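ok trying again, last paste got cut off:
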Amino acid sequence: MGNANSIGVSLSIQQKLLVFSLVLLTFVTGTSEFVIVGLLSEVASDLEITISTAGTLVSGFAVAVAIGTPIVTALVSRYPTYPLMLVCILIFIAGNIISAFASVYPLLMGARVVTAVVCGVTLTIAMTVASETMPAEKRGTVVSLVFAGFTIASVLGVPIGTLIGQAGGWNMAFWFTAFLGIISLVMLAITLPRNLKGAKTSLISQFSLLTHPRIILAFFVPTLSIAATYAVYTYIAPILEDVLMIPVRYTSLILLLYGVASIFSTLFAGKIAIRNGLGKLRYVFVIQAVILSSMYFTLHSAISGLISILFIGLTVYLFNVTFQLYLMDLAGEYSPSAKIFAASLFPVSVNLGIAVGAAIGGLVATNIGLLHTGWVGGVLALVASLLTVISYRLHRTK
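nice, full thing came through this time. structure:
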């Protein structure tokens, strides 16, 4: 609430409504991505598929975001923002309606893939709008609020959607997200500025950003930091139940508290980004490494283990605003017409990190035990810190 008040001092009513609309948009897209997680058993039973096949509806969404977002963004970034955003939301709504009607796996997967790509594109556009329409000194705070919408989705939207799906059938969860999409469409149709132009540029000039070392470094730092967290978080349920011996009935409550901590992490990220974000993150990633590594010792006690888990939630997203804006600023130096494409690289980086972290955590848990996932995540966080040090030095000597 403090952040909302602080930005309200200098933002107009129209700007505050726009911020609210962008937060709502990221809340809606986040809910759509993860709502099926709590309904996999129902989907598997109804469509007569295995639970592992149903799980590909989650992983397939993440892969579609990672692969489809930069490609589609590069193709459509030349168009004006207002109609582009509204068309994307209309496709999002249609994708959720098709998902609600789907009675076979291929149709549901196809609808999820299309929905995933437009979610990635709308998130990219939302971050670009937040960056370009707000006062410079408020960019970090506003972008952190927009990111917070996505985090709030995991805390509120997904549980609500799951309850709706369990009560009325999994299809109802997608009617719920389609309804949220309609509300978001109306809000953005009213608040989104109509004078934001697209940038006419070629695919070659956009993808050429990936030839710059500073861009490559800025891409892989979030990947490593989020991988560090997900090496542990992916296996949080067995850690709670099999290592800390906490009863299963408390798992959802602990995950809720973790989600609340991650919201604060997102909001703190805006403060870090305001001045010298790269410089601060050199040390933040070291702190993240210490917290993750400490789990090797704290997981011997339920209380200390839970404290470590909550601290992981507090550090998980501290990098997001700094690196989202940094990628866009670098594009401004190398190819100003490719700013939107640069913004699309951030969700790709994060989704890649989730996949890498889950895979590494799985290997560690299977071969040497769950107790070791923390320090392995800590090593990944230290590498993120090292790359940030290099990025910071290149930034200072440019």
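cool. The first helix runs from residue 2 to 8. Residues 1-8 have pLDDT under 50 and may be disordered.
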